[in-house]
Amino acid sequence: MNIAIIGAGIGGLTAGIALKKFGHQVTIYEQAAEILAVGAAISLWSNGVKCLNYLGLTEKIQSLGGQMDSLAYIDGLNQQTMTQFSLAPLYQEVGQRAYPVARSDLQQLLMAEFGHEQIVLNKRMIQLQQYPQHVSIRFQDGDHSTADLVIGADGTHSITRLHVLGENRQRRYAGYVNWNGLIAIDEHIAPAQQWTSYVGEGKRVSLMPVAGDRFYVFFDIPLAAGLMHDPAQYGNVLQQHFSHWCVPVQRLINCLDPQHLNRVEIHDIEPFMTFYRGRVVLLGDAAHSTTPDIGQGGCQAMEDAIYLARSLQINTLGLEDALRRYQNKRNQRCKELLLRARKRCDITHMKDRQLTEHWYQTLYSEQGSHIMQGILNNILGNPLD
């Protein structure tokens, strides 16, 4: 088939690679004039890594991933370790390590694997028109194209979703702002091979190792949406919100270059079950925009991509049948994970103070099994189990 993918993010690129391996002619249209990674890094859990293994990228993703051997929660105010444990039992259970990875590194890997020459930049799709045997695509610059199938991988602000659902879906503010970036590993802040989270007051400061002897760092602060902000002041803002926190957090903030920090107001979209209409289908954030609180956003986009490509390959009763099977396989799992992330978000960021304080207390008696079971529940159910 001649397939057009709208959006050159992680989901769109993964789908393009998989579909090309099955012999389809694939073109990716990206509205940006230059592809830039959105966010500093991504938590690539074992199910996401397996999707890349399936595409033959095992050694390449290993070279980009951080060596994350353990996990710890630390009281951000007094620096007391609440829990700390090895992630080895989790990796043994699922058969694959997790790899935190810089988004730019991952995106460059996927673009190279797909082929830069088949990514058309500066092409903002503004309209789709379906016909019995093809879809017509109109772009903002006046160009037109046609495809047998259009895949909407155009993110949380998806235009393709409007076509599929026939209505706009408003984003829901999750209640917190996230700052994220990359710094050189500093073991005075956190161990080099550990996912370390400092928590307290509904706030969170996390560090994950990625390749290149770097930490992916992020700060979560419950704040109102729409506040004025100046990138030059990001460091000062973080200093104000964490002025009374422990020494490692202060050291971390002093290491930051405000010009290389990203600020994101976190949103999700109420889950829905319709992923396709005719010859147009959704994947990734276009289909299930979620908060990052369980680290499954990118992984679910990859799962979508692999299952969609496989559904088109192994089902022979026609395109509609293959798309319906993809939708019915993916929509319930994505809904469950979206709602699970929303629940975790509310607890972590003190939507209910009593629940959050209770969670902090449970961390002191946590030996690792409960947290790893939660992560395991997110990983299992993927198309490559």
UniProtKB/TrEMBL annotation:
**Domain FAD-binding spans what residues?**
2-338
Q: Does the keyword Cell membrane apply?
A: no
Q: Which keywords appear in this protein's UniProt record, sorted alphabetically?
A: FAD, Flavoprotein, Monooxygenase, NAD, Oxidoreductase, Purine metabolism
Q: Which is an annotated GO molecular function term of this record?
A: FAD binding
Example of a GO biological process term:
urate catabolic process
Pathway involvement? Purine metabolism; urate degradation
Q: Which reaction equations make up its catalytic activity?
A: urate + NADH + O2 + H(+) = 5-hydroxyisourate + NAD(+) + H2O
Which cofactor does the UniProt annotation name? FAD
What's its top-level EC category? oxidoreductase
Kindly give the InterPro entries that the UniProt entry links to this protein: FAD-bd (IPR002938), FAD-dep_Monooxygenase_BioMet (IPR050493), FAD/NAD-bd_sf (IPR036188), HpxO (IPR047712)
- What is the residue range of the signal peptide feature? none
A Pfam family reported for this protein in Swiss-Prot or TrEMBL: FAD_binding_3
Q: What is this protein called?
A: FAD-dependent urate hydroxylase
